Amino acid sequence: MLTGNWMMDFCVCELLECSMILALIVLLLVVVIAHVSAKMIDHTRHEKEKHYLTAKGTEETFPSLMDPPSLELSVVVPSYNEELRLPAMMDEAMEYLEKRQNENPLFTYEVIVVDDGSKDKTTEVAMKYTKKYGAQKVRVLTLVKNRGKGGAVKMGALSCRGKLILMADADGATKFADIEKVEEGLQSISEKPDNMAISCGSRAHLEEESVAQRSMFRTFLMYGFHFLVWFFCVRGIKDTQCGFKLFTREAALKTFSSLHVERWAFDVELLYIAQCFDIPISEVAVNWTEIEGSKLVPVWSWLQMGRDLVFIRLRYFTGAWRLESERKTQ
After folding, report:
1. How far, in Å, CA of 56 to CA of 310, rounded?
2. Over the stretch 57-75, which tens digit does the pLDDT of each residue have?
3. 9 φ, ψ to 5°?
4. CA atoms within 13 A on the CB side of 43
5. pTM for this prediction
6. CB 67 within 8 Å of CB 106
7. Which of 58, 103, 267, 303 is 20 to 30 Å from 274 by CA-CA measure?
8. Do residues 196 and 164 touch, judged by C-beta distance below 8 A?
9. 3-class SS at 71?
10. What would the pLDDT profile of 190-228 be if each residue is shown by its tens digit?
């Protein structure tokens, strides 16, 4: 009897030992894959992506985020196959911005629509606004190939002229007038090291209602993603994924200079970089409405983002990715 129990205990110990070895091998393999694959991402900006067309069709060169600002506000609108949803968002944004400028002539702005390698007429639709308002107010950056939302936002931000830079989704899910709320969030930050600060729009106040409308599986994925964000990357921010964020120019330069992720999890890396540099972040509740036509595939996109979160942490930990040395606009 004792021999049988001893044999059983021995088998359990062997099984545990083998499981631990297997887990270590899998972990090592994941770390190696994360490190090696980090070098495969091409961040090179194509020559055609350095220019935009004026209302008259002439080609001009985009400025650099490293240049001194010449406007009060830049709005970056990442767009992929958005010929149908973009007009409503642009009409709302331009109406607000034009009204604000009429009330305060010192307020200057630009909107940069970034066509992320669309297969439809997104660029043509966006160019209608350039022709209507002029290239000083609306510019279209057409990417040669699809990079992903993060890549599109980064390319747009690096081409901005504003003291403040707002990223806003092309679907218009957040009311554009809520820019005043994120501006107040930015102003509420009393200490801005090197004038760096970020204000994030948030839908966290709507989470209880959204959970009631989701299936149990999608709710599980959502909370799983929130846990991974908290565990691996960002703490203290309830909603990292809202596409309505306002940066000071200095904060944008600091964060986007180091950004690597070009797909859906780019927001998390941006905030991770900001927290690494001790850039203060405020979170402000904004109005948000579900708009049909989302490019996010519920299950696959969540899994892809989960993978990216793990890889973000591992790539910085192994040194495959490094934070850029401190730079700011002169």
Report:
1. 47
2. 999 999 999 999 999 999 9
3. -65, -40
4. 17
5. 0.84
6. no
7. 303
8. no
9. strand
10. 889 999 999 999 887 766 555 444 456 556 666 777 787
